[in-house]
Structures are given as structure tokens and as C-alpha cells.
Amino acid sequence: MVFDIQVLPPELQNQIAAGEVVERPSSVLKELVENGLDAGATRISALIEGGGQTLIRVEDNGQGMAPDQLPQAMTRHATSKITAFKDLLNIASFGFRGEALPSIGSVSRMQIRSIREGQKEGAELDVEFGLLGQVKPIPFREGTSIQVRDLFANTPARLKFLKTQQTEAKRCQETMCRFALANPDIAFTFISNDRTVYDFPSGQDLLARLHRIWPPSIAERLIEVETQEGDYAISGFIGHPETAQGRGDRIVFFVNRRPVQDKTLISALRQAFKGRLLHKEYPQAVLFLDIPSREVDVNVHPAKQEVRFRDEKRVFSLLHKGVASALARSSFQVEPNPASTESSVPPKESRYKFQTFEDFAAPGAHEAPSDVDHQDRHTDNGVPSETADAHGETFPQPSVPHAPARPEVQGLTYLGQIHNNYLLLSTVRGELVVIDQHAAHERILYHRFSTQGEQGAKRPLAVPVQRALHPSEEEHLERVIPALRRIGFELDHSRAGTVLVRAVPVHLDPARAKELLDQILGQQVNSQEELWQMMACRQAIKAGETLSAQEALELIRLWTCTPQKEYCPHGRPAVVALGEQDLERMFKRQG
Q1: pLDDT digits (tens, 9 = 90+) for 129-152
Q2: Same domain assignment for residues 547 and 423
């Protein structure tokens, strides 16, 4: 069979082009709003019905079109923004009047109304699924109005891929939000099924618009990001790690004010949040990357949703640095108490540096001053400050009038332990601080392992321990044995099906080392980081363990000196601080 090459008829060409840029109502809305922005509009109004499939109408007060320009705008490859090849290399506009209109007009009933500034009357053009009517003069005030009805009515195959009207309306709403965030000097109105969803006045800043779009629980804790290196700059806001969510739908990136989806930017953001979020959590972010237009290619995707950077490493580094710095500035800070002259922590703090909590809690690990009775401590007025339980552990008693100040460490006043899991403290600013003892100790150990674990200090075993290996464990051991050796394991895997443990990390006793090795082989740990996380989790004090005041204070002291102390290695919060406003809100004393 012989097939002749033929030029497709114009209406079919337009429908094929429509498949590239007109995926759903929200993509139509995007193209029409971008045309308004490129026309210099300061006010844009969008109205939809039936999720946008029934009606989309976009009106702007920008530079309009003359009557003879309306049919020209419906011609493929017609534009007012590009005249030469060099313009493609430095695109600063969003769309081009006429670029997407023929594609949209081929799959809908479209009406265009417009007036050129200085003219006394406007013009109207009707388009019926690609067929152009006659241009008619009409009374018209300013700018351009484009109305799209019955989207995809002539292409049932495309129509069946649309979601519910509610879902499509939500996508249109999100599209308008992105435009509002990127263009704070422009007034935007969005109406869906006769309901005004958004009405953004011109001149709002980014933070004000985010407060309108996102719930207060997120918007009130946003963290500003701003950094610049040469002609590259990052600005915007990120959500506080404690407001993270299970989906990434509140992550929005703009490159030169164009909303984009980019794996490099996502990766840099998540790396900056690493250690502050659980594995399946996502932060919120609205971040603007401003770089020279020659450094980015916006033509790699038909709808310009994806971009290609000339220097991906530089982009990654700048965003990662900016977000990480913002998170560090917002971290929980401990302020010293200027009124405090004493601390219950002995002056020689170095004597309390222990490899593990077991070392810390071991009998005789730290001697108390000779005039202190560990089993029953008393204040100057004879009131017990701590009482020993049946096991010899101590717990703080409630304060009484005229009692001396409570013990302090690093600017935090220790109030006691609750539920054998949480340590209660207060700051000089009057905040109530709650520390999760397990998460805090996890972070301490993880930091120690990650900074010292590579030294591989060993504890040789007098009698090597032999362990049989399942075939799956044997294969996994070959992958992780270099990491195990770096932290102090000496393993002999010369015989198939068996591993001989000749030495263990110096900070582990043989029993715990064997338990850790079993867990590593059984849980398929694949990286050094996962190994440190597991070691920290298994060795940290557990929820339900009673701590004496002295033990709690030492844990707090070590924790306050640890980087990224606000979160455990898995991203779970280690501390919660409640200020006066937080407490007033909880007790409904505000307003």
C-alpha cells in the first residue's frame, strides 16, 4: 500500500496544535490571562461556569486590538511579540497575542471583543470551532474580552478525559492563584458559577496574597527566603516545617515570573528541608528565581510548564542555600538568662560528655558534690526539691512559695518531666517549651555518629561472634559492609553463608552490636545515613523512661549544642515552643 504525503487542512492543523497547549479548561484560562498580562493590563477578570467547560470569559484593560487584527490573531504562528530568531533566545513575554487563539478557537465557540486605545468603537469576531465569522463594529469600552463556550464539544474523545466540574474548577482557581502571586501590582478577580472566589486588589504584597489563599495555620508561620549571588536571585516564602502536609500541591516555583515545574528546584527544596520532615511530608513554598533570560530555555514544553537551565548546579546551590539559611534563622533559639548567676549543671561540663545514654545513666558515671544527697535533695528551707521513687529515680516536685529558683541549663529553666516522655521548660521570653526526650536524644546521637562515626573506633571481641546469613542477607551485606566497617565493625565474610564479627563499634557493647547488625541486615538499610538513623533510634532513650532532674538537664545541655536540634533524624519534631499568644489562642482569650 502506498501512502502519499499531504498537507493537513487548516482546521485539522489547529486541532492538533490545540492538543499541545489546550489540555483542559485551566490551560485555556492560562493562555488567555497571559495574553492580558502581555498586553499591559493592570486589571484582569476571569469568569467560569461548569468547571470552565461551559464558559470561560477573560477580560482585561490592556492594549486592545484593531479590527483588522482580530482575524490575524486567529492565524497559526501569528504573534505580536516575536520578529526574529534571536527573540526566541530571550523570551520575556508569556504568550503572544494570537499564538494560542487559533488552537482554542478550533475546539470551542469563541467570541473576541477588543478596542485599540484612542478608537471610538471596538470590534467583535465570532469563531465557531475554527470557522471565522465577519468582524463587526460594537460599542466597547477598553481592552479585550475573550469568551470561550462549549470547550471540546466537537472533540468528544478529548471531552471524556476531563475530570468532574468541581475538579476542573479547582484547577482553574489554582491557575488564577499563581498569576496573582506572581503579579502583585495587578488586580485579579476570579468568579466561578456566579460566586466570587478571589478579588485581589492591585498593590498587595506576596505575603498578603498568601494569607488570602492559604489557611491561617500555614500563612501565619511562613518564613521569608531571600538570597542573591551575582545576577541570580531567590525570593519568596516557605512554610514552617511543623505545617508540612502529605501532598506537594502547595509548592509553586516561578522562573522569571513564569510558573514552572522543575525537578532541580523540587530536589533543592527537599534537600534543604532534609531532617526536618517525615519521609512522606512536603513543605509549602512560593519561590521566585530571577535569572538572565539567556540562562533558561522556556521552549522545552508546549505549554511552557517546564524549563531547562544552562547551569543546573548553580540554580540548585542557590535555592538550597537560600532555603537552608531561612530555616536556620527560624530555628528554636535559646537565650541566656541575664539574671541567672547559678546553674545546677556543674561548672566542668565536659565531665558529662558520654557516648550513649547508657554511659550517662550508668552507676557512678557522674559524681555529685559531696553535700548533695541524690536520694532526697532539699532546698534551703527544708522543702524537698526532688523525691526518689522505689527504684531510686528522682522526679521534681512542684515549686512552693519562697523556694529558690529551679535548675537552669543554657538559658532554659527545667520544670519537670511529664508522661515519662516530655521535658517541660521555660525560656527567658516566657515561652513554655516541651522537648520529646527520645527525639532529642536521637538527634544528639545522629549528629555524633555522622561527625565521628567515620573514624571507625573499634572494640575487639575476645571471642569472635559467628552469624549465619540468609541468602538475601548475604547479598545485602556485600552492599553495606563498607559502611559498617567505617563505623567500627570488623567483619569477616570469607565463608559463604556466614559472617564473623571480630570487632564492634567502641560505643556499643557486643549484645547491642549484634542486635544492630541483625536489624541492619533485616531492614535492608542501603546508605550510611540510614545506618546512622537506625543506630541513633535504637540507642536513644525511649518514651516511658523516667529521668532524674540531673539526667534531664544533661540531655538538654547536649541537645541545645546540637545542629538541627528541632527535629529528630527522621524529621519528627523534637521541641514545641508555646508563646503567650499561642496560649491565649488555645484558651480563647484573644478577640
Answers
A1: 999 999 999 999 999 999 999 999
A2: yes
* CATH code where residue 304 lies: 3.30.230.10
Burial class (CB in 10 A: 0-12, 13-18, 19+), 510: middle
Residue 348 lies in a domain: no
Are 552 and 414 a contacting pair, CB within 8 Å?
yes
CA 327 – CA 224 distance, rounded (Å): 9
Domain CATH code at residue 490? 3.30.1540.20
User: Would you call 188 helix, strand, or coil by DSSP?
Assistant: strand
SS3 call for 564: coil
pLDDT tens digit string along 356-408?
A: 444 554 433 433 333 333 334 333 333 334 444 434 444 444 443 444 457 88
Q: Are residues 32 and 122 in the same domain?
A: yes
Instruction: Please state the domain count of the chain.
Output: 3
Helix (H) or strand (E) holding 503: strand 498-505
Note the pLDDT tens digit of each residue in 193-221: 999 999 999 999 999 999 999 988 889 99
Give the Cα separation of 446 and 125 in Å (integer).
68
Work out whether strand 490-492 and strand 195-200 pair parallel, antiparallel, or are unpaired.
Answer: unpaired
Q: Given the DSSP bridges, would you call strands 43-49 and 187-192 parallel, antiparallel or unpaired?
A: parallel
Grid coordinates representing 326? 531561612
Residue with cell 532532674: 549
User: What domain range includes position 413?
Assistant: 409-591
As a whole number of angstroms, the distance between CA 19 and CA 29 comes to 15
Pairing mode of beta strands 285-290, 386-388: unpaired
DSSP, collapsed to helix, strand or coil, labels residue 340 as: coil
Same domain, 106 and 133: yes
Q: How far apart are the first and last CA of the chain?
A: 81
The 3-state DSSP class for residue 464 equals strand
Which parts of 338-436 fold into alpha helices (H)? Answer: 357-361
Q: In the structure, what pLDDT confidence band is assigned to residue 21 with cuts at 50, 70 and 90?
A: low
295 lies in the same domain as 424: no
Segment 567-582 mean pLDDT: 90
Identify the helix (H) or strand (E) that includes residue 486. Answer: helix 471-486
Q: Where are the alpha helices (DSSP H) in 524-570?
A: 528-539, 549-560
The domain that holds 118 is classified in CATH as 3.30.565.10
Examine the domain organization and report whether 196 and 264 are in the same domain.
Answer: no
* Same domain? 109 vs 237: no
Name the most confidently modeled range: 75-79, 134-138, 327-331. 134-138
Q: What is the pLDDT of residue 67?
A: 95
Longest dimension (CA), the chain: 108
* DSSP structural state of residue 349: G
DSSP-derived secondary structure for 115-128: --TT-SSEEEEEEE
Beta bridge partners of 225: 236
- Give the whole-angstrom CA distance, residue 38 versus residue 79: 12
Mean pLDDT of 316-328: 95
Q: Look up residue 178 and give its three cell numbers.
A: 499563581
DSSP 368: P
Q: Highest mean pLDDT: which of 17-26, 92-101, 287-296, 525-534?
A: 287-296
% of the chain residues with pLDDT over 70 = 78
| E-assigned strand segments in 193-239 | 195-200, 223-229, 232-238
